[in-house]
TrEMBL record:
One Pfam family from the record: Phage_int_SAM_3
Protein name: Phage integrase
PANTHER family linked: INTEGRASE_RECOMBINASE PROTEIN MJ0367-RELATED, PHAGE INTEGRASE-RELATED
Lineage: Bacteria, Bacillati, Actinomycetota, Actinomycetes, Propionibacteriales
Residues annotated as domain Core-binding (CB): 74-157
Record-stated family: Belongs to the 'phage' integrase family.
Superkingdom of the organism of origin: Bacteria
Keyword Cell membrane: no
Record-linked InterPro entries: CB, DNA_brk_join_enz, Integrase-like_cat_sf, Integrase_catalytic, Integrase_recombinase_N, Integrase_SAM-like_N, Tyrosine_recombinase_XerCD
Domain Tyr recombinase: 178-383
Keywords: DNA integration, DNA recombination, DNA-binding
Range of residues in the leader sequence: none
SUPFAM superfamilies, sorted: DNA breaking-rejoining enzymes (SSF56349)
């Protein structure tokens, strides 16, 4: 019968021998974190001193791991470093998402937990942290912090540093009630007029706007595409020779911190690549853009800076805010056009078609975040309920 192995991190009897310089050497056999048994020793001026130094060496080996692996005694800062390295090794995240994860971890989470070892971070500590963050900041901020914490502790579990992820047992975050609001047709027309008239009045100093913002808005309204997806449309992605004209949504514009803005070869998600048939007003805008770049390479963007480089989403958002603020229109973001498209499609054909156009894998997301609730009940109910009308008295 095989003899059972001693658990990792345990050691046998301690023996003592004389060492040079009048020192005492304490030694023992220790089962290391890689499962192998090694002889470990330490010296001291006395037996007790040598034994104390030996146990300190053994504790350090247990906490650090034989090969620098994570353990329950590793610091939270060490976990964060290992987790970020693991994200880079997997290389599955968009660069913007990777940057967001690191920013949330370093700004929201690390300042709170950097002084703890992993074993000291309990469900209670994490639960209180998330609740305080939701109260002090917002539901969204707390949710983002919870996400990166859960991912990091998930790695700790996979590395056998912890038996379970402490984030999993925290109380569920409750999203505050909110209502998705779409733009009305009158609001859309007011926005169009504000953009069309911006800085074009007689006597306005400086060159007039280049017209790109107007065109970007029309394409967002006719495709439901995100602002970054619209800015990433190339000459080769559009086809105005068919009826209706089509646009292939197959990229997005990203601006990594400290790096040049560039076109990413897929939209927000890999599955949201799609070919969209567009209404006539969008086809006309595309034709106007094609006239400007007809001599350019097929990979050339429809929208670009004076230097031919990609426009940034932040610059378009800032310009839209400035234009609408001057016109007295507040609270409209590029995403409002996406919600408006989803709501119009839902009213006409239901949420499944809206989800398909928006590039969602399920209409659940579309209904929850993009479609304005319809308070009107089908008027057919009035006809059906006529059957409950009181009967007229005989002879009346």
């Amino acid at each position: 019968m095989a003899r059972p192995r001693t658990p990792i991190g345990t050691f046998g009897d301690i023996s003592y021998i004389s060492a040079s310089g009048g020192q005492v050497r304490a030694r023992t056999r220790f089962r290391d974190t890689d499962g192998k048994v090694r002889r470990v020793s330490a010296t001291g001026t006395t037996r007790r001193d040598a034994e104390r130094n030996l146990k300190k060496v053994l504790a350090d080996r247990t906490s650090q791991g034989a090969a620098g692996e994570l353990t329950a005694n590793s610091s939270f800062t060490t976990l964060v470093d290992v987790w970020l390295e693991d994200l880079d090794l997997q290389d599955k995240l968009a660069e913007s998402t990777r940057a967001l994860y690191e920013r949330n971890m370093r700004q929201l989470v690390l300042p709170v937990f950097e002084g703890y070892s992993l074993r000291e971070i309990t469900v209670g500590k994490v639960d209180q942290f998330i609740k305080r963050l939701a109260t002090a900041k917002s539901y969204s901020t707390a949710k983002q912090a919870r996400t990166v914490l859960s991912l990091a502790f998930g790695l700790a579990v996979r590395y056998d540093a912890l038996e379970k992820n402490p984030v999993r047992d925290t109380a569920r975050l409750h999203k505050p009630p909110s209502e998705t609001m779409a733009l009305t047709l009158d609001q859309v027309e007011a926005i169009r007029a504000a953009v069309r008239n911006w800085r074009r009045a007689p006597g306005t100093p400086g060159p007039p706007p280049d017209g790109q913002l107007e065109h970007i808005i029309e394409i967002m309204l006719g495709t439901s595409a995100r602002i970054g997806e619209v800015l990433a449309i190339r000459r080769c992605d559009v086809d105005v020779t068919v009826s209706p004209a089509t646009v292939r949504i197959c990229g997005t514009i990203v601006s990594p911190a400290g790096k040049p803005t560039y076109r990413q070869h897929h939209p927000k998600t890999q599955k949201s690549t799609r070919v969209v048939s567009v209404p006539s007003f969008v086809a006309e805008v595309i034709r106007q853009r094609l006239v400007l770049i007809g001599h350019e390479d097929p990979e050339h963007l429809l929208f670009f800076t004076r230097n031919g480089t990609p426009l940034t989403t932040n610059n378009i958002r800032r310009r839209l805010r400035a234009v609408l603020s001057e016109a007295g229109i507040e609270g409209v973001t590029p995403h409002a056009f996406r919600r408006t498209v989803a709501t119009v499609l839902d009213r006409a054909s239901g949420p499944d078609l809206a989800a398909e156009l928006l590039g969602h894998t399920s209409s659940k997301i579309t209904k929850e975040h993009y479609i304005q609730p319809d308070e009107a009940v089908d008027p057919v109910t009035a006809e059906i309920l006529e059957s409950l009308a009181p009967k007229r008295p005989d002879g009346a």
